[in-house]
Automatic annotation (TrEMBL):
Signal peptide: none annotated. Catalyzes the dehydration of the S-form of NAD(P)HX at the expense of ADP, which is converted to AMP. Together with NAD(P)HX epimerase, which catalyzes the epimerization of the S- and R-forms, the enzyme allows the repair of both epimers of NAD(P)HX, a damaged form of NAD(P)H that is a result of enzymatic or heat-dependent hydration. The lineage of its organism: Bacteria, Pseudomonadati, Pseudomonadota, Gammaproteobacteria, Oceanospirillales. The gene is nnrE. GO terms for molecular function: ADP-dependent NAD(P)H-hydrate dehydratase activity; ATP binding; kinase activity; metal ion binding; NAD(P)HX epimerase activity. K(+) binds at residues 70, 131, 167. It comes from Reinekea blandensis MED297. Residues 22-221 form the YjeF N-terminal domain. This is Bifunctional NAD(P)H-hydrate repair enzyme.
């Protein structure tokens, strides 16, 4: 078996597949292995027990099983734990699986051990609950009876370990339908599922692990949490070698946005940061970051090697629109379009080939002409639709930020809920602009920037209740502990 901690020679452990693609991969595997998916279920159960045995071996376990093959995994896991001497209770609230599917065979094998399967909540107290109600086959919203079972499992005074996907979570979108298991840990099979990596997925999964079960998969989607491509600094260097970032914004009462963006661009290593803000904010900008240069007012759009960060606190008036229009029509211009820059982009039907767009869900909805909840419920699809429409690198912000290009999608570090504070987006935009200035390609700047920002916030959130953009700016230049 190929475990996440032991990368396979083909390095497929970072690949992400939708539930439909996983089904296809299973079938393809079966066609090449005697037409049978049963060995995969056995391998999945063996892998789950191996992954969790140290957690469960000293206590008692309740396995809650559904009628599909996720429940089948649950029956196999229960049998293996029982045979290993762990006290196990099995609860099947929806009855038996249909004859003919692997789950039915798993139930039959469990019954041969003599272990009973309960149709009502067992009264025994347990130390661990194993959630095998639904996996990648959840295909509609839950009805009230099922919601009650999931809520009861979440309220149980025992830690919950989820099989493949936390039950109730849409494996493709990361949306609870409308509730989902909050697991301490989730062990997935074959490939990462998009819904476990974005939206509410990371919060529901807890500690996430994967076993590919030796199934070959191929995907344009991947999961990367690395920041290894951060620009290195060598002995003979000069600030001019680290690029210029021009921050265009900080107008009409929104000075803070450009001060934060300029601060994070500096902290992320840009050689020079020039703030084109309203004259009223120059003093404040310099008090916060005396290293920043200021050129008050909206700049002339010049075609040099600079990176432009256009949007934080730019405003929505005609002058701001004209500024965005000129940047996007200027040949060879490059940079990051954020906040009000994205507002004006919606009225400009223009490709943004050398630009990184950084919308949150509301901005993405406006650019696509969708409702916000449609974006929230389809984050991977929305990110790719934007990348195609604007021929750009798109960073769709939110928990489990996505980086889309016209040819693929990357799932990034989920950060922390403690980072949901004002100015976080301005801070991220400044980091990405600084990485562009230091010669990272737009896609790499976006992925490395998102991961650096999220990991820094996550680290700070281990010791503070909230993480502010200013905290991130202070922490960026530090080495990881
Ligand atoms: N076979 C293999 O090779 C391998 C499979 N593997 C495992 O199989 C899992 C996928 O199995 P799966 O496709 O059977 O789907 P699963 O998640 O069990 O759910 C389907 C059941 O739920 C039901 N149902 C759906 N929505 C519902 C709702 N809202 N409310 C109520 N019911 C609802 C649906 O009912 P129906 O639509 O038929 O009415 C059906 O009974 C995968 O996650 C992994 O754990 C691994 O072992 C690796 C090898
Ligand atoms: K599950």
């Amino acid at each position: 078996m190929e475990d996440q901690t032991m990368p396979s020679p083909r390095q497929q452990s970072d690949l992400v597949l939708t539930s439909e693609q996983v089904r296809y991969a299973e079938q393809h595997w079966a066609e090449n292995h005697g037409g049978d998916t049963w060995p995969l279920m056995n391998a999945a159960a063996q892998s789950f027990v191996r992954q969790t045995f140290e957690r469960v071996r000293h206590g008692s376990v309740l396995v809650v099983v559904g009628k599909g093959n996720n429940g089948g995994d649950g029956y196999c896991i229960a049998r293996r734990l029982y045979e290993a001497g762990v006290p196990v209770t099995v609860f099947a609230p929806f009855g038996e699986p249909s004859p003919g599917i692997d789950a039915h065979r798993a139930l039959t094998e469990l019954q041969q051990t003599g272990l009973p399967v309960f149709a009502e909540w067992p009264s025994t107290s347990v130390d661990t609950v194993i959630d095998a109600l639904f996996g990648s086959g959840l295909n509609r919203p839950l009805d009230p009876t099922v919601i009650e079972i999931i809520e009861r499992m979440n309220q149980y005074p025992a830690e919950v370990l989820a099989v493949d996907v936390p039950s109730g979570l849409n494996a493709d979108t990361g949306q609870p339908m409308p509730v989902a298991i909050r697991a301490r840990a989730t062990h997935s099979f074959i490939a990462w599922k998009p819904g476990t990596l974005t939206a509410e997925g990371p919060q529901c999964c807890g500690q996430l692990s994967l076993d590919t079960l030796g199934v070959d998969v191929d995907s344009d989607w991947c999961w990367q949490q690395e920041t290894q491509a951060l620009p290195a600094r060598s002995g003979q260097t000069h600030k001019a070698q680290h690029g210029n970032v021009n921050v265009v914004g900080g107008r009409l009462g929104m000075g803070g946005a450009s001060i934060i963006a300029a601060g994070s661009a500096l902290a992320a290593g840009a050689g020079r940061v020039i703030s084109h803000c309203d004259p009223a904010f120059v003093t404040a900008a310099l008090v916060h970051h005396p290293e920043v240069m200021t050129q008050p007012g909206l700049p002339e759009v010049v075609n040099d090697d600079s990176v432009w960060l256009v949007g934080p606190g730019l405003g929505r008036d005609d002058a701001a629109y004209e500024q965005v229009r000129r940047h996007l029509h200027s040949p060879g211009s490059r940079g990051v379009l954020d906040a009000d820059g994205l507002f004006h982009l919606a009225s400009l039907d223009v490709p943004c080939t050398n630009w990184v767009l950084t919308p949150h869900e509301g901005e993405a909805a406006r650019l696509l002409g969708w409702r916000s909840d449609k974006v929230r419920n389809n984050r991977p699809v929305a990110a790719q639709a934007l990348a195609s429409r604007y021929q750009a690198v798109v960073v769709l912000k939110g928990a489990g930020t996505l980086v889309a290009t016209t040819s693929g999608l990357t799932f990034c570090h989920p950060g922390s809920p403690a980072m949901a504070t004002p100015g976080m987006g301005d801070c991220l935009a400044g980091i990405i602009a600084a990485l562009l200035a230091q010669r990272l390609a737009p896609k790499d700047a976006a992925i490395v920037g998102v991961n650096w920002h999220a990991q820094t916030g996550y680290r700070l959130a281990q010791r503070q209740r909230l993480v502010l953009a200013s905290d991130i700016i202070r922490a960026l230049p530090q080495r990881d502990e």
